[in-house]
Structures are given as structure tokens and as C-alpha cells.
Amino acid sequence: MESYSRRRFLGAGAALVSAAGLAACGSGSGSGGPGGGALTAMVYGDDAVKIQVTSVDRFNASAAAKKTGAEVRLQKIPGSEYPAKLRTAMGSPNAPDVFFNWGGGSIKAYRDAHQLVDLTDTIASDPVLKGGFLPSVLAAGALGGRNYGIPMRGMQPVVLFYNKTLFAEQGLRPPATWDQLLDNNARLKKAGITPFALGGSDIWPELMWLEYLVDRIGGPEVFDRIKNGDSAGWGDPAVLKAAETVRRLIDDGAFGKGYSSVAYTNGGAPALFAKGRAAMHLMGSWEYSTQLGKFPDFARKDLGWCAFPAYDGGAGDIRNVVGNPTNYWSVNARTSHKDAAVAFLRDCASPAYTKDLIANGDVPATAGAATLLDASPNPAFARFQYRMVQQAPAFTLSWDQAVDPSVQTPMLTEINKLFVGKSSPERFVSALKGLK
After folding, report:
1. Residue 99 shares a structural domain with residue 218
2. Residue 242 belongs to what domain range?
3. How many domains does one find in the chain?
4. Which residues, at least 6 apart from 80, have a Cβ–Cβ distance to it below 8 Å?
5. Which end of the chain has the lower number of beta carbons within 10 A, N or C?
6. What is the pTM of this model?
7. Are 100 and 329 in contact (CB under 8 A)?
């Protein structure tokens, strides 16, 4: 379940920090902590960590390491233990100098406790960092317009996937507008085909619909306001209209009848899609690897992809993207090795780092990756994702990662209540406005 696991790796960020245990401590002097003899980089210890291992080895052998006099030591933490261990470490004298995170809400408590280096001016004054990454990805991990992280893994935008063979048989085209989507839905239902697969029992696949609809209807500014702590932003008319649109889709049978008992995590939703029982699937880009692993013939022959359609009369640009921009390295404000930390972060913009990500099947957030994507396991899909993010005026971080961790669970609960009919669009908006 590599693809789902990667969604979990990203989604775990919403539970990364809490106010507890973040009291500021004096600079530590122990080996491996800020002030120690080495620069410690704490990272999520999944299969992709091999890229960071190589990066550390490359930096430690570089002129930059000799110039700064610091050597990076990578501290790999098993996935399930990472959030708790990072939280504990950040409240101790031996906190890491650099650490892996999900951006947005996952680092807000650290920012509020003044435990992060604000990298905004550093990026602006460093040609490698300023020009090394796609601007929308840098911005997606920011808080209040300030940068606290450098992209260090692959991008995972949410994509509208469709069954090319089924579409051809029904004489359909990928929808570019909402009216086209609704017309496709009507024709598919007439043919006895559910328009969209949906793993409703996991809830987070439902979230993707609201993320895109709020963006397309009201523009990215609507959720930016919410992400930056203004809960009144949930009262924006775009949120209510998105909720009403979701209810109309559900009532019209766009997701079939049993979507609330179908999961993505056990392969249920991908199977409905691959077997032609559903024609489309709104899902993160990892859907490709899921289908390749479970239904390789379908992935190679029938799987198509396109942008989420424009909403007629909406303020959002069809080029806007939602999803998981990437993971980030952030720097502890208490480090004694800031220059070395920044020098280490610069490696993430290097051609060598980019090539390692591509070889691992990732689509890098680096600005120069386009010319290297032919080496990807699926060049066509990699190029589509890269262009999608490169051309995006805005890349909205998944809501469950962007909001304060204390808001994540009640927000998801309200989304699920909307989808299963236990709440109306009006009650949905009222409940979200009450989240603090």
C-alpha cells in the first residue's frame, strides 16, 4: 500500500504539534542538538529516506561543509513514531537543527513558540534558493506569507482521473467546465455507470471535493484566510456554495449509493474505478502508483488524467491546484549552525537531488526538473503533474494539513456529516465557523 502510505505520511502532519511541550528551552550543548558539534537533521524514516541519506553524504563531502565546519547527522525516525518524537525533541535541550515537516498547520505551533527560523529573507537573497523551486510550492508551505521551509520531497497534487476507454465508448470528453461535468454525469448514469468513485469511509477523499470547489468558486484567498487563523472565513459565500454543490452531486447519484461504506485504504474505491463501475476518480497523484500496483493493465492502457474543471462564474483559476505540495525542511531557531543548515538546504535545489527524486518515481518541486522528467517511470504523467504545478497561480495545501491540529478532527467530522446527510450545507458552515 505504498501510495496510501504516502498519503498518510503527509496527512500525519496535522497531528504533528500541539501547544503542549513547546515551551522555549535554552540552547542545548549536547552532541547532535543545537549548539552541539554536529548539525542534526531529523527525518521521517520511510522508504524515500534514501534520498535524504544520499543528500547528507553529498553535503558532508562538499566544500560547503568544510567552509562551515559542520557535519550533518541524519536522525531517521520510524514513521508511526515521528510526530511524537519530534514534539518531544523540540521541547528538549537536544532538539534537531533541521527537521522534516508538512508545512502549514503542522508547524504553526512551532512558529507561534518562536522555534523556527524565518527563511523568507534568506531565500530572497540566495539565488539558488530563490530560483530553485516552483513558487507555488514554496508559498503553499508558508504561514502568513512567510517561508519557514524548503521543499525536500516530491509533489502530490490532486488530479481528476478518468477511464479513457469508457469515455471513448460513451462519446465523452474530460470535463473542462462544471456544466460539462454535469452533462457527463447524466450520460454515464443513463448508461448504468457511476460517475465518480469515492472512498467516503476514509473521509479525506471527501475533503478533496470541497477543497477544489471552494477554490474554483471563491478563489484561493478564501481558504488562505482560514489557514491563517480567521475562522470567520468559513462564512465566505464560496464555502456555502461548495457545500450546496456537493449535496447536489450526492443527491443526483454522482457517487453512487454505497460510497460512505467504500474505502480508499483497502483498495475499494480504486477497484470500482479500474473495473469500469465508476468512470472518474478525484484523487491525489499517488492514484497512478496505486493502479499500477493493483491493476497494471488498466493503469497503462485506460488511465487518463486532467485538471479539475472550472466552475461557471467562479473566481478561481482552472490552473489552481490543491493537494500535498511536498514535504519541507525547517530550521530550529536555536541552532548554532544556521549557515551550515542553509548550505545543507541548498542541496535540495541541486540537479543531483532532483535526479534522485525522479529515479524514485517522484515529481520534484525544483524549478529545473522539466528537462529531467524523461527518466521518470512514467514520463507522460510526470510531465503533466510538473506542468500542472509549474503553471498554477496557487497551490492550496490540503485543508487537514493546513489548519491548526486542534481543528483537524472536528473539521473532518463536519465534512463527513455533510456527505452522509447528517448535516445541511447551512449547518455545515455554522459548525465550521465555530471551530477555534
Report:
1. no
2. 157-322+404-433
3. 2
4. none
5. C
6. 0.86
7. yes
